[in-house]
Amino acid sequence: MGGTDLLQEGIFLAPYSLETLTYFNWAPCQPDNFHQNQHCVSISKNDALLRWDDDSCVVNNWPLCQRCA
Ligand SMILES: [Ca+2]
Ligand SMILES: [Ca+2]
């Protein structure tokens, strides 16, 4: 869904603008940076309230929204 802490662990930035994110809706126990390899924000499929999870950046996920170029 966008957002990453690739540049500095625990500091999540917006894609493209690289503004520091100030709003979060993390699922319980997230972000956990599991295996020290989760740096991209996704919507947790395991959370009934669709809260957020930090996930691997190489996992293919569906976009939250997308427009034609
Ligand atoms: Ca991380
Ligand atoms: Ca996680």
TrEMBL record:
Residues 1-66 form the C-type lectin domain. It comes from the Eukaryota. InterPro entries: C-type_lectin-like, C-type_lectin-like/link_sf, CTDL_fold. This is C-type lectin domain-containing protein. It comes from Dreissena polymorpha (Zebra mussel).
